[in-house]
Amino acid sequence: MSLTPEQAVDRLEELHATASIALREALARFTESGAVPTAEERSRFRYPELCVDWQPAGAVRFTRRAWAKFQAPGRYTTTVTQPRFFRQYLLEQLRPLTEEFGGTIEVSVSDQEIPYPFVTEAGDEFIHGDLSVSELARHFPTPVLANVGDEIADGTWVEGVRGTRPLALFDALRVDYSLRRLLHYTGTDWRTIQPWILATNYQRYVDHFLTWAMEELAKPDSPYTQLVLPGGGVVRRGDDITTADATLHAAPWHSFQMPAYNLLRGDGSGGVTIINIGVGPSNAKTATDHLAVLRPHCWLMIGHCGGLRQSQTIGDYVLAHAYMRRDRILDDLLPPEVPVPALAEVQVALQQAAEHVTGERGEALKRRLRTGTVVSYDDRNWELRWTQERRRINHARAIAVDMESATLATQGYRLRVPYGVLLCISDKPLHGEIKLPGAATRFYQRAVGEHLHIGLETIDLLRGELHSLHSRKLRSFDEPPFR
């Protein structure tokens, strides 16, 4: 008998909780007495599996929706972790598959074991005294990285032994791996990371975000309810200003490679997370590899760049319409000849937000905001190779240069997360206009706050356009049904 979407998610929650409890109890017993789990006990340490079977009879329903639809008849499966957290997402994907297409849902225990670090909070609470990690690994499932991959997202998956097709881009093992990495890199619990993400390469954007967030939390009618800081500190709406400031300044953000600040909303439309991903394409890839498993609605890059045209002025904006990928980090996964398109919905929202925030329109806005190609390098000192790079940049008609934007956009394309890039020109390296200390300080004071608010306004505009935001431009021919 087929389950309803609600029954299926209930069953997933039950099976995942049962397996996690059994694994934690076995770990506790082993650390206390050395009792090794039996083969029968170990068979309980497994993720639940979700299967949707679609065998159409008659005319196939047509939908223009980009997700929650089948590409071909068959059995679609995936293992699932943290179903309670992903409940709303799972229901949004499953309901159209059953109500519109007539798919049937089954839930069972899979063959995929849950690695023991993924059922612990700190990751090492079961290591006591002389007990070593290697001893735990002898008797309990471990996260074998050979089994963690992006074959589905990259289109290299092989049809299952039972003739099954993938239901989702990421299986449970891949999701759990990234959830733990997010905590490690960002310093915040993955449960608090919001579906609207701002990525930046300068801490000053974070500083302005925190000022704005504290102002929002001070408003009694604000939709925002709390701010979760790196290290776990929380500022809530209505907190005493002295207490809130103390919590904010006590956050150990410097202890984390890419600190995240998460501003939560209470109306169900999703709050905003800002992450200082730092400088370079490696950081941009690392962050987005792991953020993607949360299936965010959008990530936007707001950071600094170098202007490449004489007509540009420091403080002008660049709205990326195309990307010249000299970052190289994703070349093996997505060949450079594959075009990474600009997403119309995001581009329009970014331009509208710039109009709203700056108060400029038409020709006045064009003088400050230019669209064109952004080139991203993996070498910060690319200028030292100008004689070799000049011709390539000229052919691309590039108007700005940075180190992260092409990576972030390519990752969005590859991992099916809507993306956009709006940069602010902080120097013009080819024209002798470099960031001297005094000029840089004046630039930061003037430009960063306005730039941040354009990003926030863009998110507000996109909140009401989810149906068109998750567009078919990001979907492949053999796409899994789940977004």
From TrEMBL:
Keywords: Hydrolase
Domain spans labelled AMP nucleoside phosphorylase N-terminal: 7-159
Keyword Hydrolase: yes
EC number: 3.2.2.4
Residues annotated as domain Nucleoside phosphorylase: 269-431
Entry-linked InterPro entries: AMP_N_sf, AMP_nucleosidase, AMP_nucleoside_Pase_N, Nucleoside_phosphorylase_d, Nucleoside_phosphorylase_sf
Catalytic activity: AMP + H2O = D-ribose 5-phosphate + adenine
Entry's Gene Ontology cellular component terms: cytosol
Any GO BP: nucleoside metabolic process
Top EC class for this record: hydrolase
Pfam families attached to this UniProt entry: AMNp_N, PNP_UDP_1
Molecular function via GO: AMP nucleosidase activity
UniProt entry tagged with the keyword Hydrolase: yes
Function: Catalyzes the hydrolysis of the N-glycosidic bond of AMP to form adenine and ribose 5-phosphate. Involved in regulation of AMP concentrations.
Family membership: Belongs to the AMP nucleosidase family.
Listed PANTHER family: AMP NUCLEOSIDASE (PTHR43691:SF6), URIDINE PHOSPHORYLASE (PTHR43691)
Protein name (database record): AMP nucleosidase
Native species: Reyranella soli
